[in-house]
Specification:
Elongation Factor Tu (Ef-tu), domain 3, Rossmann fold
Length: 424
């Protein structure tokens, strides 16, 4: 026998052994299968190839009108003591609808007056935490008397700090507002000035609960370190998530002061800082803060080439911040049928007044003619001036954050589109 014949015999023996091994394994699996099939059949058990998927949990719907909430915790958030968080739970104990991070709650408050009576006012405050099933949180900064001014301090913020305690009941509308983070995986840049950081905290907490891999940049502006809120929380997130980039800017801190953390820096949040630190990526920018901050940053981002669709902002008085692109656009002609002058009838007071271009919004117009109107934010957010329209139509100069009920309008951001009769 030659060496080649010997090699062939060895190879054939190996192949035969492998075939016998596979055949025996197949036979054992077949016997196991037959045993299981017989057991199920004799036991009368249904044979299901797949289990039914679990029923999806029902999401609570947003409520209409006012709902009572109880304050469960009241927490001072910063060293200066002028920011306080209020944790709210529904008095009825029912689950809460999820909100979009960046939205706000609307409160109706009974403010005490010097004569012992109370005045109802409506105010909006941003939610400052991610959605939870059984509670909400708002964080409110006490508004002092402005320097060199005779204006009184903020009535609602001081009422919260001085009169709202654990156990207090508050009337609250469901979360609302068109300023909220998108749910894509696009990188985001959050810019919060002062108490404008509250909706940014909601966005950050939601992102790292729902999208932990998303790239998030937070630029937080304050005058000095003692004003900051949630600092330890933000530091912990930055330590846990390498895709979270935290930068805190101090505008009034002495530039010669040594800063204690690498993410802190002197100066305001401005476009030069963003251009230095941000890699070129298709970011969405979300801004909230005082009007001067936004009036500077929004056009600067446009000049940098950021598309309008990627710039989202909420100012303290949003009507005062204009997009540069809107100012350069050619005004659209008035729709056919609109009148330059419109007659506004106030049904309950019996007045009929001619409204003309330049008369301002309907809230200012009504008050100028001695008609008292309940109002709050005066910027289309709280819904306090919502009024029923009997006849006619209105036009909104800017889309309001609060969505009025059908057949109603928000006087503070609307003007007549035709002759108009209002339930006032």
């Amino acid at each position: 026998m030659t060496s080649l014949q010997l090699l062939l015999w060895i190879t054939a023996a190996i192949v035969l052994q492998l075939a016998i091994y596979l055949a025996m394994g197949f036979w054992r699996h077949w016997q196991t299968y037959e045993t299981l099939r017989t057991t199920v059949s004799e036991g009368g058990l249904p044979v299901k190839p797949h289990a039914d998927p679990p029923e999806p949990k029902a999401v609570p719907a947003a409520w209409s009108g006012w709902r009572y909430f109880q304050v469960t915790h009241k927490v001072v958030e910063n060293a200066t003591g002028d920011i306080c968080s209020f944790h709210l739970a529904p008095q009825d104990g029912q689950p809460l609808p999820a909100f979009l991070p960046g939205q706000y709650l609307t409160f109706q408050l009974d403010i005490p007056l010097p004569d012992g009576s109370t005045q109802a006012i409506t105010r909006c405050y941003s939610l400052s935490d991610g959605p939870r099933a059984n509670s909400y949180r708002v964080s409110i900064k006490r508004a002092p008397t402005p320097p060199h001014s005779t204006h009184p301090p903020g009535r609602s913020s001081n009422f919260f700090h001085d009169h709202v305690a654990v156990g207090s009941l508050l009337q609250v509308r469901a979360p609302a507002g068109h300023f909220h983070i998108d749910r894509s995986d696009a990188p985001v840049v959050l810019l919060g000035g002062g108490i404008g950081v509250t909706p940014m905290l909601s966005m950050v907490n939601w992102c790292f609960a729902e999208q932990p891999g998303r790239e998030v940049w937070l630029f937080y502006g304050a005058r000095f370190e003692q004003e900051l809120m949630a600092l330890s929380h933000l530091e912990a997130l930055a330590a846990m998530h390498p895709n979270f980039h935290l930068h805190v800017c101090f505008s009034d801190t002495d530039p010669n002061t040594t800063l204690t953390n690498p993410y802190q820096r002197h100066g305001r949040i401005d476009i030069d800082l963003l251009r230095r630190l941000l890699p070129l990526k298709p970011y969405h920018f979300y801004l909230c803060g005082p009007t001067p901050m936004l009036a500077s940053l929004v056009p600067a981002l446009e000049d940098w080439g950021v598309p309008d669709a990627r710039i989202h902002f909420e100012a303290f008085g949003p009507a005062s911040v204009k997009r540069k692109s809107a100012a350069l656009a050619t005004p659209a002609p008035a729709p056919e049928g609109d009148t330059a002058t419109a007659t506004v009838s106030f049904a309950k007071s019996g007045q009929q007044v001619a409204w003309q271009p330049g008369s301002g919004n309907l809230l200012d117009f009504a008050e100028a003619h001695g008609i008292a109107v309940n109002s709050g934010c005066r910027s289309g957010s709280c819904g306090g001036c919502q009024t029923k329209i009997r006849t006619g139509e209105v036009r909104y100069r800017e889309a309001p954050d609060f969505d009025p009920e059908p057949g109603s309008c928000l006087l503070c951001v609307s003007t007549p589109k035709s002759h108009l009769t209002l339930e006032l």
